[in-house]
Design brief:
Radius of gyration: 19 Å
Largest sheet: 13 strands, mixed
Helix content: 10-25%
Number of strands: 17
Order of helices and strands: EEHHEEHEEEEEEEEEEEHEE
Structural class: mainly beta
Oligomer: single chain
Length: about 270
């Protein structure tokens, strides 16, 4: 296992390059130490900012372990595509950006734009995530197109912005504009929701497991009382994989179905547990 720790408290933000993930997967230590990374307005080598050594951890099995405070480090796990990546501590923005496979686990909070452009793999955040989770990369019109994201805590604003495929599970509350301009995919929120859910959504499903009243949301239209078998399977799957909070009943099967956005032909759906 490759373990990486900061040499000291970082005063300026660090932007990790996309090729770092491939070097970590292949354990190319010499190239990793020499790779150039952006640190504030200057450029430094990896070994100037971080310590790297190969060892084992008593409780963690992973190919790569980041241990320490990485809250000013952006792009951790960018383009990750196989194996297990573990972070002990907080991270900066763009965690798991354009991730295509493998598993990334964070025992801490993450910054904004987590899982941006993600297309595969599994991302588990054991605390809170910032704004624009699962949204789109600059120059793209689509957010995440695949994979699974589980946030045990809360998420910020614009979660699932222009999301195209994949699944996002939120263990606690969501910020405003949940599922904004959502194109497809599934979002499951287990805690309180904001006053704007599914605004301008084209397709997709937002599943709210915490009872809520959407009658004041004029962009949604109440349709039917609903008992879809597929969501019983989804909740069972999440429960078996320990991706569902203990406060949520995995046998929940009765929902009120809302259609929306009404200005977008009402092809999306918001389901509220009832």
């Amino acid at each position: 296992m490759i373990t990486i720790t900061p040499k000291k408290n970082l005063e300026s933000f660090v932007e990790l390059p996309s090729q770092l993930s491939e070097l970590l997967i292949n354990a190319e230590i010499d190239q990793i130490l020499k790779i150039k990374i952006r640190n504030g307005r200057s450029e430094r080598t990896f070994q100037e900012l971080f310590d790297l050594h190969e060892n084992t951890h008593p409780t963690i099995e992973a190919e790569v372990l980041f241990e320490g405070d990485f809250s000013k480090v952006h792009g951790i796990g960018r383009n990750w595509n196989e194996g297990k990546f573990h972070v002990l501590g907080n991270t900066g923005d763009c965690l798991g950006e354009q991730m295509t496979g493998g598993t990334l686990v964070v025992e801490g909070n993450t910054g904004d734009c987590t899982a941006r452009g993600m297309s595969g793999g599994r991302l588990i955040i054991q605390a809170n995530a910032g704004d624009h989770l699962g949204s789109f990369c600059p120059g793209s019109m689509k957010g995440m197109t695949g994979g699974e994201v589980f946030v045990q805590g809360s998420v910020g604003q614009f979660c699932g912005h222009r999301m195209r495929r994949g699944t996002i599970i939120i263990g606690e509350s969501s910020g405003s504009r949940l599922g904004y301009e959502m194109l497809a995919g599934t979002i499951v929120c287990c805690g309180p929701i904001p006053d704007t859910v599914g605004l301008n959504m084209v397709r997709g499903t937002i599943l709210i497991l915490n009872p809520a009243n959407l009658s004041a949301m004029s962009h949604l239209e109440e349709a039917v009382q609903y008992e879809p078998a597929v969501f019983r399977l989804l909740l069972k799957y999440l429960n078996l994989n320990k991706m569902l909070p203990t406060s949520i009943d995995p046998t929940t099967s009765h929902f009120t179905r809302y259609l929306g956005d009404m200005t977008m032909d009402k092809r999306g759906e918001v389901l509220i547990a009832s």
